[in-house]
Specification:
Number of helices: 8
Number of domains: 1
Shape: globular
Strand order of the largest sheet: 1-2-3-4-5-7-6
Structural class: alpha+beta
Helix content: 25-40%
Order of helices and strands: EHHHHEEHHEHEHEE
Distance between the termini: 27 Å
Radius of gyration: 16 Å
């Protein structure tokens, strides 16, 4: 049976599970040119996870997906430069960290942003993604937000269909082509 849990509601030892941190760090693959491969993203991002900005989907005891969100200028990952310097050196790490910060700061204009959603491949097409989207919308509404916004990569029509099916609408096309995403939004009751 599927259950959705706010990460900060997990027992401390469960939140410290490296498998959960690994699952969450895989959600920034679109920034691989800055953050490196999956192992590198794990080392960079998992030292400062804000679990109060993550909804986790569990099938029994196994985590099968997550939805991360951002509001009040705070998302699921702390902006820490030291892991970047350790990983890439002072100059390259500083440049990559600055690029990551620009990506993060660009999203501050959204009052409530669905920052990322990922479902493990074996759990796809079973309603996990839709359950996470609905749980994220319910969480945003409970926090008093009137709308939820997201950016979906242009090369991910499957995600766009998921969001459209769950009540999101496309925003008008942007004038700036980078990053290659399309904005979507949904009003909340």
């Amino acid at each position: 049976m599927l259950r959705i849990v706010l990460g900060s509601d997990l027992a401390p030892e469960r939140a410290a599970d490296p498998a959960l941190a690994h699952l969450l760090s895989q959600g920034r693959g679109s920034l691989a040119f800055l953050l490196g491969d999956a192992a590198c993203r794990y080392r960079l991002l998992t030292t400062g996870i804000h679990w109060d900005r993550v909804l986790l989907a569990f099938d029994g005891e196994r985590a099968v997906g997550f939805a991360a969100f951002k509001h009040a200028r705070r998302g699921p990952f702390a902006l820490r430069w030291r892991p970047f310097v350790r990983e890439f050196g002072l100059v390259a790490g500083g440049v990559r960290f600055a690029g990551f910060c620009l990506s993060e700061w660009r999203e501050w204009r959204y009052p409530f942003l669905l920052y990322g959603l990922r479902v493990d491949k074996p759990a796809r097409n079973q309603g996990v993604g839709a359950a996470l989207v609905q749980a994220c919308c319910a969480h945003a509404a409970a926090q008093g937000f009137a709308r939820i916004e997201l950016e979906v990569p242009l090369d991910n029509p499957r995600a766009r269909r998921l969001y459209l099916h769950n009540g999101f609408a496309l925003r008008r096309k942007r004038l700036v082509p980078f990053p290659p995403v399309r904005g979507m939004w949904r009003g909340l009751p």
